[in-house]
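[step 3/7] fold_predict: job queued, chain A
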Amino acid sequence: MDDSSQIPGVAEGNEETATEKAVHVELADILCDSNRGIAAFVLRETEGSRALAFFISGQQAVDSAFRLRGKHVRPTVHDCFATALTHLEGELTEVYLHGTQEFDHLPDSQNAAYLSLMRVRRGTQTWDIDARPSDATMAALISGAPIRAAETLLQDAKLEFPPAQAAKLGLGIEQLMRRYSGWSQGPDASSDRQSAEEAREAYEQDMAVYELLNYILYRSTEPPAVEKPIRVPWWAFWLRKQNPPTHKMGPYPIPCGGAAGTADLPTPSEAERAET
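[step 4/7] structure written:
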């Protein structure tokens, strides 16, 4: 790997320039709606209300929430990366979301992915490593590295949470912890022993997540009366072939952030293209 590798568009050796046109963001929430089969990371600028959202898998959502709350049983892949980096005397200095890329084998421009880089330093050497935004975000949270996003991404996303919805950010992680804390016995295994207050709190969390996801998809807490059929990424349809999702997609494209890469997937047939 080239030791002088830099973030695209950045002059070699000028680290200040690397983040000059970038905005500090932080993980605001992890949202998961198992009924609709959708989950997302929400990154929000630290000094402002603009945000980025990208789809991940439901399992990623659960695993990430448990890791953030320190409830994971075994080291995650992000822990392994951090440990290996430490032993190699390296340091993750920042994560940078810098662009998007469309899936060539899909007919719809909504099926795109955010691109991110992890900047790793060892001594005087620096590398910019390509990574999925979901993985890069978790690695940054574990190591304490800052997360930045290109200004153009925030402008293009046009996602800004009003105060009423911004106040609910964070409930998604709490909902995941509540719902799957007894995962070995099945989701909500202890729901029959909930008090009325606990049941009400659980309902309010579920509704908050529902509204936040609706706002990301439609910029409204309620889905429109007439909806266009969803165009899910082909890899998601392929994995869920026996039980395809039935939820709808709004007019706002939400890139993927934790999807499988396109290089390792077989080419879909024309029939499968039509089904997605």
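[step 5/7] annotate
Strands lie at 22-33, 38-45, 51-56, 91-102, 112-122, 125-131, 147-150, 228-229, 248-249.
DSSP finds ten helices and nine strands in the chain.
exit 0
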